[in-house]
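User: Predict the structure for this protein chain, please.
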Amino acid sequence: MTKVKSTLLALAAALPLLTMSMSSQAAMSPYMENALIEVCKATLSNNVHKLNKTTKQYRLTKKTVALKLMCNGEDVISFAEHYGANITAAKLQQSLGDVNITDVAALSKMDVSF
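Assistant: Here is the predicted structure, written as structure tokens:
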């Protein structure tokens, strides 16, 4: 009998944890899902004006879209390039800005006197 009670107790303790993890995976609202699908479609159109209009309509920045949006399992820039939408892919890449790496140790020399 104690084995049955301990099993039931373990199940009762695990049930809230399972429901929380399952609900967090499917927490996207239909509005947000539609917005992201429309941005993916606008990216595939290879029309920068349509991409700008769609991102403004849903109040999204191009930088956020470029960094965080996944379309069919690929990041949005790779997705656009994969389907030949190079103009919109370049515009999204441009929104990320340039990244420069500067080796400070190589540029500045320190003079130490004893």
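DSSP finds seven helices and two strands in the chain.
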